[in-house]
Write a structure and sequence with these properties.
Blueprint (H helix, E strand, L loop, with lengths): L2 E3 L2 H5 L8 E4 L9 H10 L4 E4 L11 H5 L3 E6 L6 H8 L4 E4 L2 H12 L4 E4 L13 E4 L2 E7 L3 E12 L4 E2 L8 H6 L1 E12 L17 E4 L36
Parallel strand pairs: 1-12, 2-3, 2-9, 3-4, 4-5, 9-11, 11-12
Antiparallel strand pairs: 6-8, 7-8, 9-10
Length: 251
């Protein structure tokens, strides 16, 4: 049975320690467990290994843990949105294991499914394969990748029920379902927590994977790079509606 807590700090109480491995859902700033990340920051734990597609941006998301010098190693696919992440890597302060995005997803899926490793052609002949076992299958070389099982998994969901069943909203689904399965302990923040059971046909992450649950605080959902331009064909709000356009305006 999933246990519900009143705050992110309470939900993480007793789960954090120096040097642990934490898997974190999200993609950039989309679908990240912001409350839980901030609670990890506030706890002061150090020497963390973080498994995440990337490390947020400067000053937001997992970037907060970098700024607080809490991260020793990162398993990630992308560093380009976070200048501090890139600088710490180039300065040799941060140990980074680059993992192709599909491989990272599969390593998390494998860890959650109890699969210790799998072979993939991705990365063969590149630095990604250095130090790893390779094998020939049907004349093609593959590299062995290990499944990831984290000490702690942090997840953001859109809706949860009292049993810890989860659904996600649109692109915020990203890595969250995989991360939810890959933690020895999984802690979830959800935007909506309902007492009645979710419709079984809508559930993405079954509650059996969820240990702790907290209601997420309302907050502005950040976008890494907001790029907009005027639509040339857009009707100005203050312009009169005439001609053919009038036929498309509801009474």
């Amino acid at each position: 049975m999933t246990t519900r807590y009143d705050s992110a700090a309470e939900a993480l109480d007793g789960t954090l320690r120096d040097g642990m491995t934490i898997a974190v859902g999200g993609f950039g700033l989309c679908g990240i467990p912001s409350d839980l990340i901030e609670a990890v920051r506030d706890s002061g734990v150090t020497g963390l290994t973080v498994v995440s597609n990337n490390m947020g941006v400067d000053g937001k998301g997992l970037g907060l843990l970098l700024e607080n010098n809490q991260v020793a190693k990162v398993l990630s696919s992308y560093v380009g949105e976070n200048k501090l992440f890139a600088q710490q890597y180039l300065d040799g302060v941060l140990d980074v294991e680059f993992v192709p995005q599909g491989t990272l997803a599969e390593r998390l899926r494998a860890g959650g499914a109890g699969i210790p490793g799998f072979y993939t052609a991705t990365g063969v002949g590149t630095p990604v394969a250095e130090g790893k076992q390779t094998q020939i299958f049907d004349g093609v070389e593959y590299v062995l990748e290990r499944g990831i099982v984290a000490d702690l998994a942090l997840v953001h969901a859109y809706r949860a029920d009292a049993w810890g069943n989860l659904v996600y909203r649109m692109a915020a689904r990203n890595f969250n379902p995989l991360v939810a399965t890959a933690g020895r302990v999984t802690v979830v923040e959800a935007e909506i927590v309902q007492e009645e059971p979710l419709d079984p046909d809508t559930i993405v992450s079954p509650g059996v994977f969820v240990d702790r649950l907290v209601l997420a605080r309302e907050r502005v959902k950040d976008i890494e790079q907001r790029t907009v331009r005027p639509r040339e064909d857009a009707q100005r709000a203050d312009a009169p509606v005439t001609g053919d356009d009038a036929a498309h305006v509801a009474p």
